[in-house]
Design a protein that fits this description.
By secondary structure, this protein is an alpha/beta fold. Helices cover 36% and strands 19% of the residues. α2 links the parallel β3 (60-65) and β4 (90-95).
Length: 171
């Protein structure tokens, strides 16, 4: 996918979110709650292989983002803050485009606070995860069963995610 195409997709996602047309919390888009999260593979920023299927035993929040997505950039510092508040939950941010690590690191450096657990993929996640747009966040239990989907960046989505994290973490 060309850089121009990625920019257009990010812009469209941002326009939908700002216009209030992105699906809100509780919509049925994405993997339905109660279903296992589909496996995906990628590499961490330091080059380590990552497979969701192999990452079990700890609840997690997986945020799908693109470096061209403005709402993603707005949401990521809030997710980083939640990760610090809930160390029993693994927070993973997954870049959905085939961007090189240097571009992703440059993007992260522009944020006031950034997630530390980043996975790079070669794209194709929308077909696997079925998210309607970016950002998209999944809350998973210890067995990688979906507990909630959050589409778009909204205060309500962050509030609902924050409210469910104590139970997800087992507190």
């Amino acid at each position: 996918m060309s850089k121009l195409t990625r920019m257009k997709m990010g812009l469209l996602s941002g326009v939908l979110c700002l216009a209030g047309l992105a699906p809100a919390w509780g919509d049925t888009m994405g993997v339905p709650p109660g279903q296992p999260a589909p496996n995906f593979i990628g590499r961490t920023l330091d080059g380590q292989a990552y497979r969701l299927k192999a990452d079990v035993g700890r609840p997690k929040v997986i945020n799908f983002f693109a470096i061209t997505c403005r709402p993603c950039a707005q949401e990521m510092p809030e997710l980083a803050a939640l990760a610090r508040q809930f160390p029993g939950v693994e927070f993973i941010s997954v870049n959905t485009a085939d961007d090189d690590p240097a571009s992703v690191k440059k993007f992260l450096a522009t944020l006031p606070a950034a997630p530390t657990n980043i996975v790079l993929t070669s794209g194709g996640l929308q077909e696997i995860i079925h998210y309607p747009g970016l950002p998209h966040t999944l809350a998973l239990d210890r067995d990688n069963v979906v507990q909630a989907n959050f589409s778009g960046y909204t205060p309500d989505n962050i509030r609902h995610l924050r409210a469910m994290l104590p139970a997800l973490a087992g507190h």
